[in-house]
């Protein structure tokens, strides 16, 4: 663990091969715990996003492939983050008008085909302005993430709820979302490690990346219907987040 946390403090970002995602251990049943942060999980493509000094952007999947050139709309993430350099952890999703994940569309985009716009759902901050944050507790990293990243068309910070995992699980199941990520509030970030400090609770029959797309919940209207008259509609995924029992502090 000491080697994982001692990555140096060079303001220039390291090569993506020097850091890897931390992974959750699956769990079957939802639970409540004051020691955990609970977040909705869309089951999209896990990526690390490297925001380089001078404006460069890398979007690196778990096989160390840089996807930035395939997804030009994610160039907008750079303007959402108030930092000279940063590394974000999150997932890529393509969603329909209701905010339901369309994994077929995401696969098409990653293959170079025209399809739905892709967005970043960011849930962790690993590096900021030359300093690695891996040894800090999750509570502190999430607080910093909310302060430095705004929500926009290219990406949003995934909001959270403290303690009430069962309520969030019921809400995401009703909205057609893949599941819930439960993470210990004191958890450091362990690159490349699958740890019980993080647990993923999938909704049965949800549509994970790699499966055929399935319809969303019946009766869900278009996201545009919830926009205020005269205002630009919110990104569909953000509209769905506002239906969930989450901390929606915009920082």
Distance between the termini: 32 Å
Quickly count the helices: 6
Structural class: alpha+beta
Poorly predicted runs are: 1-11, 210-233
CATH topology: D-amino Acid Aminotransferase, Chain A, domain 1
- The CATH superfamily name is DNA ligase/mRNA capping enzyme
Q: Strand count, sense and closure of the main sheet?
A: 6 strands, mixed
Percent helix range: 10-25%
CATH class: Alpha Beta
- Overall number of structural domains: 1
Q: What is the mean predicted local confidence, pLDDT?
A: 81
Write down the Rg.
Answer: 17 Å
Report on this model:
- The protein is α+β, with helices and mostly antiparallel strands and 251 residues long.
- The protein has a single domain (20-213, 226-241), classed as D-amino Acid Aminotransferase, Chain A, domain 1.
- It is built from six helices and eleven strands.
- The strands form two sheets. Strands 3, 4, 5, 6, 7 and 8 form a six-stranded mixed beta sheet that branches. Strands 1-11-10-2-9 form a five-stranded mixed beta sheet.
- It is globular and about 40 Å long.
Could you outline the blueprint of secondary structure elements for this entry?
Elements: H1 2-5, E1 23-26, E2 33-41, E3 45-51, E4 57-61, H2 77-80, E5 86-94, H3 103-110, E6 118-128, E7 131-132, H4 138-148, E8 155-157, E9 161-163, H5 165-175, E10 179-184, E11 194-202, H6 236-241
Parallel strand pairs: 1-11, 6-8
Antiparallel strand pairs: 2-9, 2-10, 3-4, 3-5, 5-6, 6-7, 10-11
